[in-house]
Amino acid sequence: MKELSHQDKLPKQFLLTALILILAGIVMVYSSSYIYAKEVFHNSSHFFIRQIIFSSIGIVSIFLIQKIRFDFWYKHGLKIGYLVFFLLLLTIIPGIAPKLKGAHRWLSFGDVYLQPGEFIKYTLLFPAIYLFDSFDKLTNKERLNYALSLLFPLMVLTVQPDFGTFSICILVIAFVWFLSSFSRKFLYGFISTGLVFAIALIFISPYRIQRILTFLDPWKDPQKSGFQIIQSYLAFANGGIFGKGIGNSEEKLFYLPEAHNDFIFSVTGEEWGFVGIVFVVGIFIILTYLGFKMAIRSLKRPNMILIASVIFTIALQAFLNMGVVLGLLPTKGLNLPFISYGGSSILSNCFAIGLILSAYKSGSDNSDNSEQSEQYAQSEQREQTQE
Which in 90, 268, 363, 367 has the greatest CB count within 10 A? Predict the structure, then answer.
């Protein structure tokens, strides 16, 4: 009885941790963007209001998604993935998607921009789980169908280009593979091939090579290629132990590009200090710990793999963003989950939190047959391959 009571508290603790990150993000988006917003949009609350709106929608979606049985998501996972892939495909069609920051990653709906790549990181999990954990039960046609469901989105990401999301997707697919019952020897070959392909993508793009060189020595060109990371260093140095106080960052005064997005962690370090950085990192660690704990306690294998893979995706992106702004990794356009400004980012991550809670609720229900999800999935797989 004590164990059941503890299990009931686990999703509540997980949800509360996610809500703390969302709240911290709202505070830091306003603090890091109000001067820039006033200069550019003549409204200091421009990004702040949008972040509140998207966060509110995201929080509502968490509560709605967790109410839906996980069997629904598992059964219709491919259909949801196809919809997101269609939106992703639209981003590379000339005349439809705008080119922003040198890439075609967004769809424009008036004054609102949607980045399908933020969602593809999670929808790819369904075909990956179908393929790797049920490989021996699938026909060759089904295996090809799921393999192409993974390959096509990755190809579009390289065309956009979005090397950061591409890299995360590759690592997440490998993680699903690792957790599944699929052969490990093929996994090592997949990882090796992925590394070779990633290195090739770096060397055929001059700007990616420049990022590597800048990472190795940002002081070689402090006014151009090394400017952003050097300003990030200064932000953390200025913050000291206790920070300069919320709203008092100097680096956000047009010194640090993308202060409210990719480099919001730097502004956090300057305003909240080392103590604040430890707090943010600690919350992400707690979220990751609770997520993996929920995965371990799930009684159904598909649920376990999905929960672990989703929380791995969130933790990986947080680690990569923090590594970049601290100068431990080459600069790449990856935002900090729940903290950085961005409607697509907050909505996709809230979808992920809801999915985890839905999977845990279903996966910890002893009254269900552990093969029910597989039966639903196999039925859906037959219908889709016949189509």
Answer: 268
Cβ atoms 333, 262 nearer than 8 A: yes
Cβ neighbours around 376 below 10 Å, total: 18
Q: Tell me what pLDDT residue 378 has.
A: 52
CA atoms within 13 A on the CB side of 325: 31
* Confidence band of 317 (pLDDT split at 50, 70, 90): very high
> Which three-class secondary structure state does DSSP give residue 298?
coil
Domains identified in the chain, total number = 1
| Residue 16 belongs to domain spanning | 2-386
Omega cis (within 30) before 11: no
Q: What is the pTM of this model?
A: 0.90
d(CA 67, CA 357): 9
Cα separations (Å) of 240 from 28, 274, 345?
18, 6, 29
DSSP 314-357: HHHHHHHHHHHHTTSS-------TTTS--HHHHHHHHHHHHHHH
- Residue 333 identity (one-letter amino acid): G
Name the DSSP letter for residue 182. S
DSSP per residue over 95-118, as a string?
Answer: TTS--BTTB---EEETTEEE-THH
